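Chapter review: from sequence to fold.
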Amino acid sequence: MCIAVFYLRDNRVCAAGVVSSPRDFAVARKMVNQRAVVEPSELADASIPLKHLLPGEASTEG
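The token string follows.
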């Protein structure tokens, strides 16, 4: 199980903490560095992979 906490300001990812998932940690780090704009409801939806919330990443699967 992965635990992730995101801090948003005006729907921009300002900070994040991720436990037990190096892959999600890497994506969260990109989100913070890019100050990605996300919908909180999508971020809270565990069925949506975090990488799909990165700008320009939604259509890539790998």
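Two observations follow directly from the output. Helices lie at 22-34, 40-44. The chain has a mean pLDDT of 91.
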